[in-house]
Amino acid sequence: MKPVVGGWSLRRRVVTLLTVVGILLIGLAGAEAAMAARNRTQIDAVLNQTGPLRVQSQELLNALLDQETAVRGYAVSGKPADLGPYRDGLAQEQSVVASMRSLLHDYPQIGQEMRIVEERAAQWRQSVAEPVITTTEQSGTRAGQALITDQTRQQFDQLRAAVDDLQEEILAAREQAATNVRTSSNVLVVLLIVAALVVVVAGAVLLVSLDRMVVRPLTGLADQVREVAEGDYQHRIATVGPPEFIRLGDDVDAMRQKIAADLAEVRGARERIEWVNSQLQKQAEELTRSNRDLEQFAYVASHDLQEPLRKVASFCQLLQRRYAGQLDERADQYIAFAVDGAQRMQRLINDLLAFSRIGRLTTGFVEVDLNKVMGDVAGQTEAARQYADAELTWTELPVISGEEPLLTNLLANLVSNSIKFRRADVPPKVHISARLVGTEWEISCEDNGIGIEPEFADKIFVIFQRLHSKDAYPGTGIGLAIVKKIVEYHGGRVWVDTDVAEGTAIRFTLPALPADVESAAVVDSPEQPAALSAGDTTPPDEARAAPAEQSGGSDRPDRADAASGSGRTGDMRETVG
Hints:
Elements: H1 10-77, H2 84-101, H3 108-139, H4 141-147, H5 150-229, H6 243-302, H7 306-323, H8 329-357, E1 366-369, H9 370-380, H10 382-388, E2 391-394, E3 399-402, H11 404-420, E4 429-437, E5 440-447, H12 479-489, E6 494-497, E7 505-511, H13 514-521, H14 540-545, H15 559-564, E8 568-569, E9 572-576
């Protein structure tokens, strides 16, 4: 871990700048909020206080004029109906005054002028209006008109002057409120401009700082990294700027050093690999030459070696037939040994040739119905099954992709092995079954023979590997090796199941056709198989796993009969489940 480089980090600088800008903007926002509230109050004063007061002052003046006009008209006419405007004006005056008083909390000067108007209006009614009305009612119009003099007119003029003073005071208050609104609006605009300037200045400072502290160091680091990427792995990367960038440059330089070291190792490994490749190429050429030699050997073994071997075998047999009994017992034994050795040599060569041809002489993969193959196998093994009184059964088998001759050879070898390695005095039973496991068919060949010990389960597939003497069980020991090679050639695997209770179970897998896999995916569970024919040795688990087994095996024509043309030969039974 590298020590932390001194100086302010980029994070600290950015946080500090944003903090200062945030404090300024918060202060400006608070001032703007206060000024906006004050502006709303001032606008409210203009719209909801001084404006209505001005209108109501005019209504008050109109109400007083209505009263004065009604009193003078009543003094002239003496009609009580002429006093209606007086009483209406008085009621309107009282209503207007009450409404105006509710708006005068913030205007004491206007309230003072309002009280003067009310006092003078009360004095006018007491000294002029009421006496005129009373005198006119009691003494007539002449007496009432006599009370209306220049002095009473001057008294009403004083009342009107008081109303004018009230209106002037209201107008002055309104002008002052409008002035305050304009002032607060201007201050609010100034505050917004200041806030915008703060944001602009902060953005400019941040942009310049990022250019100086981020863009330039990153650009320099990128240029140095490109130099390294172009092949100059020894170029030391140095970075300036905030501590984070310096640490980044150190880490990148450490990575460069590690890459340079790894590249040195890769170059060394490449040289070694090139040397190994050259050796492998030589070995491949040698293997190619060896394969050619093996092919030539196979040709020689199948033609040139067979001819002298046949001659040796035929002359040994001729000696055995012509001079049997004429020589001593030891000579007859030696001749028998020679004949047997020549015959076994012929079988070994033929089996070895068959083993070498698997996968080399190919006819191409096609879809093969294993049921038809089992019919062919039944025909091929008919003689052996008749001799051993063997029973061969199989459940419904799938269609797979492969080479039919090889698959026939595969199953024929398994069936022949099961018949060969039988128990004494026990009729052999061989059963072939199949089940779908994932994307593969698992095919089983089970018998009731002598079985295989678990420790020998892997050895039986080795070529020419025998577990018994040739006197006990004849053969060359290549049959299961051929089985293994055919299965692996088709992309499967083969093994011995050592968990069976009796006999031997050899299982192998073959890739399933995509259609079989898709159809199995949509089926919840396989059908329960019907009862198999008498003598069927299919285990219950295998019978449940077998796909689409036939039902009523004893009532259906068995597949081996269809292939061979006969349903029963001697004591041999061929049935399908």
